[in-house]
Design brief:
By secondary structure, this protein is mainly alpha-helical. α3 runs parallel beside α5, α4 (about 75-90) runs antiparallel to α5 (about 100-115) and α5 (about 100-115) packs antiparallel against α6 (about 120-130). The protein has helices at about 5-25, 35-55, 55-70, 75-90, 100-115, 120-130, 140-150. The relative contact order is 0.11. The protein has one domain (about 10-150): Tetratricopeptide repeat domain (Serine Threonine Protein Phosphatase 5, Tetratricopeptide repeat), CATH 1.25.40.10.
């Protein structure tokens, strides 16, 4: 790696985190049209920066955020295209924390709803409900529920 690329790492990390946090913050509240655009840009910007400094897990978490943002905005096919590999990644790991597994199911359900896939929506929603009920930490459950309450019921 060149010296310039190595010195850019802290900037990529800071932008990845800042944009990730801003997009999640916007995703769980009512937004204006301008804030919808900001949320979309922040999610994509975060994902791009994670490609420069993140691990596979960071990139999959960014993909999770992209799926949720696209679902919120009604971009069903795109949301589902992001959600499916993310869901496969997190459900295929034996060490995925309960809260992250719940997010994976919830966001797949949201993306499926946005894409009009009724069967997948119903199945993923049920999986999310079951996993949320098993989250050990109260704060983790609260955070997941902030997102899950935006997922329409089947």
């Amino acid at each position: 790696m060149t010296e310039a690329a190595e010195s850019a790492k802290p900037s990529h990390l800071e932008f990845a985190r800042t944009c990730n946090n801003r997009a999640w913050e916007l995703s769980v509240r009512e937004r204006t049209t301008d804030e919808d655009r900001e949320m979309l840009h922040a999610a994509h910007t975060s994902a791009w920066h994670w490609t420069k400094v993140g691990t596979e897990q960071h990139r999959m978490r960014a993909t999770m955020l992209l799926a949720e943002v696209h679902a919120l905005l009604g971009h069903g096919p795109t949301a589902l295209a992001f959600a499916q590999p993310m869901h496969t990644y997190f459900t295929g790991r034996g060490d995925t924390p309960d809260w992250e597994l719940a997010f994976a199911h919830a966001i797949l359900a949201h993306a499926a709803h946005a894409a009009g896939d009724t069967a997948l929506h119903r199945s993923a929603y049920g999986d999310a409900t079951a996993v949320i009920g098993r989250i050990v930490g109260d704060e983790d459950r609260r955070i997941v529920m902030e997102t899950f309450e935006h997922v329409p019921r089947p």
